[in-house]
Amino acid sequence: MTNPSRATEKILIVDFGSQVTQLIARRVREAGVYCEIHPFNQVDAKSLETFAPRAIILSGGPSSVIEGQAPQAIPEIFDRKVPVLGICYGQQAMCQTLGGLVEPDEHREFGRADVNIESSCALFSDVWQVGGQEQVWMSHGDRVTKLPPGFSAVASSDGAPFAAIADDARNFYGLQFHPEVVHTPHGAALLRRFVRDVALCAGDWTMASFRTTEIAKVRAQVGSARVICGLSGGVDSAVAAKLVHEAIGNQLTCIFVDHGLLREGEAEEVVHTFRDRFNIPLIHVDASSLFLQKLDGVDDPEAKRKIIGGSFIDVFDAEATKLGGSDFLVQGTLYPDVIESVSFTGGPSVTIKSHHNVGGLPAHMKMDLVEPLRELFKDEVRDLGRELGLPEEIVGRHPFPGPGLAIRMPGTVSADKLSILRQADRIFIEEIRAAGLYDEIWQALAVLLPVRTVGVMGDARTYEYVCALRAVTSTDGMTADSYPFDHGFIANVATRIINQVQGINRVVYDVTSKPPGTIEWE
Ligand code: XMP
């Protein structure tokens, strides 16, 4: 178990495999306290000693504690004399370890429930009053039927007499419901109360303090060595580059491989922001003809991705070699990529799409990685970017895939199609911004379909491409819902695109959620 952070007040979240464990971490961090998620099977006496948490939260999970092989909350968790909060499965695992009883429940409870607050406890103070009824989100099959010594029930629901339990003397608490989800309206306040008032953390983990510690860490890691960073135009690499530049100045060189698959004005914006505005040494390689040439005639989505990924690395490698090599490579890896989630399905997850990044560099480019964002969630990276003074257009920008517009045009890629798609995309985004919807939407994009259909404009017949529009809401890109635009809005966007973009005569809106669809079309 590694702990790269210098944060002194740390919360350990023991992951039993819940779908929403990451939300616990977000809520804790929103309360200004640093935390990490570790899989239950990597938590032992030694790792606990090393990590030295101020408090421990046990997550929910899909197992039943009654089953023989079920994951356990090891006794050492409770021997450390720090506050422990068990959530759902975590509550049951805690009760089982501490001498209570868990049984299958005839009344499985899923979804919204009301709990009655029956007694006070340190966890509820200033949040819930005795006698009140509060809305929560339940999702459980088993339930605690006998409390361990020292505990008492402090809230109950129709389905769970021990919906919340407390042992104030030891600062141990258990919740049968999920405080981390928004469907438990006061859940965030309960988690805040746990880390700030029960575990007595000061809550001083802010982006300003993160920036200072991280800059010191980067300096210590690279010394006087040369460092390179691949800029993509996206938020993560931009924030990583800016932070590293603050730490080591011109020891850093950024390489921006422009594959010609970016959106309108994007390449110019990257160059302007980094080179002109922040004076960060930047090599801008216009490799668009090379990429177009390699992609010529290729229509298979995976083949397109592989060609782009491979060519990207070749160009990057050539530029780095021209620089005389480098000892370190900056990468914008985020915390969700680092967390080893507990998987109960077994085996590695199947490759849905081969993602494109610079991780697969050739062996001769042996460089150590500098990953200053490894501890952050996406929204925290955005906050850090603002803290570092990056412009809102970069920091607040929707995610954009490495292979760019090539995977937004099923079929072959050509300069003409790219130009048509760029214009449609610009109009869609302009309208979304004008309607004040940009920040509500996780990602909005236009896709150019490889089919042409008949239309009529003026008195003439047209035979042009179809453009699909897609906009989704999401918290992490793993699941997504189609954004419910007003019909009038989407009709207006369609009219603008058809009138202004030559080559498109029909527009459709994609209402597929993820799953079963993916966000990108390829
Ligand atoms: P999908 O299409 O898999 O996309 O639902 C989920 C999120 O990932 C982005 N995406 C990529 N990002 N390299 C990236 O850096 C890629 O190859 C890539 N493919 C998809 C996508 O835009 C969405 O935000």
Characterize this entry briefly:
With 522 residues, the protein is an alpha/beta fold. The protein is built from 15 helices and 18 strands.
Provide the helix percentage. 25-40%
Content of β-strand:
15-25%
Q: How many strand elements? A: 18
Distance between the termini: 36 Å
Shape: globular
Rg calc: 26 Å
Oligomer description: single chain
Structural class by sheet pairing and helices: alpha/beta
Number of separate helices: 15
Low-confidence stretches: 1-5, 345-351
Mean pLDDT: 92
Bound molecules: xanthosine-5'-monophosphate
Largest sheet: 9 strands, mixed
Spatial sequence of strands, sheet with the most strands: 2-1-3-4-9-8-7-5-6
Describe the structure.
With 522 residues, the chain is an alpha/beta fold. It contains 15 helices and 18 strands. It has helices spanning 21-30, 45-51, 76-79, 89-97, 187-198, 207-222, 235-248, 266-277, 288-295, 301-322, 335-338, 378-387, 392-395, 415-434, 487-500; strands spanning 10-15, 34-39, 55-58, 84-87, 101-117, 133-146, 152-156, 164-167, 172-175, 227-231, 252-258, 282-286, 328-330, 368-370, 443-457, 460-473, 481-482, 504-509. Strand 7 (152-156) and strand 8 form a beta hairpin. Helix 6 (207-222) crosses helix 7 and helix 9 (288-295) packs antiparallel against helix 10 (301-322). The longest helix has 22 residues, at 301-322. The chain starts with 9 loop residues before the first strand and ends in a 13-residue tail after the last strand. Xanthosine-5'-monophosphate is lined by residues 353, 355-357, 399, 401-403, 443, 477, 514, 518-520. The site of xanthosine-5'-monophosphate (XMP) has 14 residues, from loops.
